[in-house]
Each structure stands twice: as C-alpha cells, then as structure tokens.
Design a protein that fits this description.
This protein has 11 helices and 9 strands. The protein has 321 residues and is of the alpha/beta class. Helix 2 crosses helix 11. Residues 65-68, 145, 154, 279-281 line the site of phosphoric acid mono(formamide)ester.
C-alpha cells in the first residue's frame, strides 16, 4: 500500500506546503511555471490580481526574518488577501499561551492561511495536523522555515532562480557550501535538486558541519572547497547557523573563511558562467567575500525578488481550493 504525503490531498493537489521532500517533480515544475506567470505582478507592472480576495493570511513568525516575512506579506497583498502580521513579542505566547491555543484563537478570527516560522522543527506540521482535525480542508499552512528541518519556499525560489539562469536541471553540477548540518535551506534544496534530476550534487564543508546520510541521498561530500568547486554551474553558499550550534564546531570565523569562504580566487575554479547564490542573511568576510557577493555572477538579490512570485504561486495554488 502506498502512503499519501500528508501535505497532499487525495487528488494530488497541495493542502499545505510543509516540505519539498516527497513533492512530485511535475508539481514542483507547476509551482515554478505559476511563479513565472506572476513575475510581472511581482515586479509591479501589474498592481494586483484578485486570486485571494476575501481571504485572510496570518503571518506567524516565532523567529526573526527579513526576507521571508516581508516577501510573504507583499505576495499576499498582490494576491489581494487581507494580511495580518502577528507580533509574537507582544502576543499572548509571551504570557504562556500554547502554540495550538494561539492558532485556535486566530482560526476563530476566520484565518484562511497561516504562514509559520518556528525554531522547533515540526511546528508547522503540528499546526497543519491540528487544523486538519478541527477545520478539515478549510485552512492552509505554509512552512516559512522550521528549525533545521525545512524551508520549502526558499528551496522553490532557489529552483526558480536556477531554472531562470540555467534552463535545464538535468545537466548541472551544483555545489552547496558551508553549514549543511544546521541548514533547513540545504535540506530543502537537496530534496528539490534531486527530484528535478540534477545529476551531480556536491556538499562542501568541514566534517563537523556535515550531517550523516548525504551519500545515501546521492550527494557527493567534499571537505576541500577547491576540489568541490571545480567545474560547477551553481554555487549555493550557506550562513553559519550559530544560533543552532551546540558547542564549538569551528576554530574561528577567520579560520572558517580561509577554508570555506567564497573568494574570487576559489570561484575561478567553477565554470566561468557559474552563478553564486545565498539565501541570506549573508555574513560578508565569513562565508563570502564582498567582491563575490557584489559581482555579476551573484544572483543573491534576484533570489529575493523571485521569492515574491514563488510565494504568490504557492499561496494562490493553496487558496484556489
Ligand atoms: N532566507 C531567509 O529565510 O531569510 P530571512 O531569515 O530573512 O527570512
């Protein structure tokens, strides 16, 4: 018997977006195609589309964010939704209210969609399961990053950016560099790139920041950055997730930059038309040299802009049901 993915409905459509793991390839491409149709709207050539008119989107960010929270808000507004940004610091969670009690109360205000970021892996899953029980298929949850587990819309906007520049996934060498162990972005990117048929996926970083099981997922592990970058088409740099590290896993930021910082000299080992990506926030001089971050090969700010169209695509596909 085959198990249905919990975020998918029986007809194969998305009920929630919680993870990229297990999403079919054609569904990922359909999200990217839908995003492409929104690029004009997200660039403000067209002001708004009415696809979520009358719907309420609640942004619940229990962890800091600049890019994700803001682009979700812009995306929801461009779909004509009513957007509520809950200020967690001044909300009743600070008085001891449980996560699900907070959700129940917001749900009683007729929320149609929750966008959730939480430091605990699995928090958006918990909310989605709870809402399925009490509201059936009425309410949708989008995971905006949970602990070290998943950041599916970041993964999707990364795929959108790669497809925009490279067109075809099936002939690419992609390197993900840095703190893979604590990175939800790395996990979502690995699932997406594998599903989309990237034939050579490399993880580059110190052993202490490399999770087990990568080889079983078809990822080639490199501890030597120069070896790992050779002839790649795409370089995805990651931030050191200091807030998720327990104990000393690295000698110092300077030492890290020396071995795993992306400099012009190291980037020259990749293909001449390689693109450089970073989900942000970016630490210049720790994981990336300013001259690279600001170079023509860097598509880091484009990722942010594409994030609006990708989040519009996800929310409109969920809200259409
Ligand atoms: N990429 C990303 O999630 O950035 P924020 O933490 O600013 O949302």
């Amino acid at each position: 018997m085959t198990m249905r993915h919990p975020q998918l409905r029986s007809d194969g459509e998305l009920q929630h977006l919680l993870t990229i793991e297990g999403l079919p390839r054609d569904l990922i491409h359909r999200i990217l195609d839908t995003a492409e149709s929104f690029v004009g709207v997200s660039d403000r050539e067209v002001k708004k589309v009415p696809l979520l008119r009358g719907k309420s989107v609640f942004n619940l960010f229990f962890e800091n964010s600049t890019r994700t929270r803001t682009t979700f808000e812009i995306a929801a507004k461009r779909l004509s939704a009513d957007v509520v940004n809950l200020n967690i610091n001044t909300s009743s969670t600070s008085k001891g209210e449980s996560l699900l009690d907070t959700v129940d109360n917001l749900s009683a205000m007729h929320a149609d969609m929750f966008v959730v970021r939480h430091a605990q892996s699995g928090a958006p899953f918990l909310i989605a399961e709870h809402l399925n029980r009490i509201r059936g298929n009425e309410v949708h949850v989008v995971n905006a990053g949970d602990g070290r587990h998943a950041h599916p819309t970041q993964g999707l906007l990364d795929m959108y950016t790669i497809r925009h520049h490279k067109k075809d996934f099936t002939s690419l060498r992609v390197a993900i560099v840095g703190d893979i162990l604590h990175s939800r972005v790395a996990r979502s990117d690995i699932h997406a790139l594998t599903t989309l048929g990237v034939p050579e996926l490399r993880a580059i970083g110190p052993r202490t920041l490399m999770p087990g099981g990568l080889e079983q997922m078809g990822v080639h592990v490199y501890t030597d950055m120069r070896e790992g970058l050779r002839d790649v088409d795409v370089v995805i740099m990651l931030r050191l997730q200091n807030e998720r590290m327990r104990g000393a896993l690295l000698p110092s930021a300077q030492e890290y930059f020396k071995h795993y910082g992306l400099t012009r000299e190291k980037l020259a080992l990749a293909r001449p038309d390689a693109i450089v990506m970073h989900p942000g926030p970016m630490n210049r001089g720790v994981e990336i040299e300013s001259a690279v971050a600001d170079s023509a090969q860097a598509v880091i700010l484009q990722q942010v802009t594409f994030g609006i169209a990708v989040r519009m695509a996800v929310m409109s596909m969920l809200g259409a049901q």
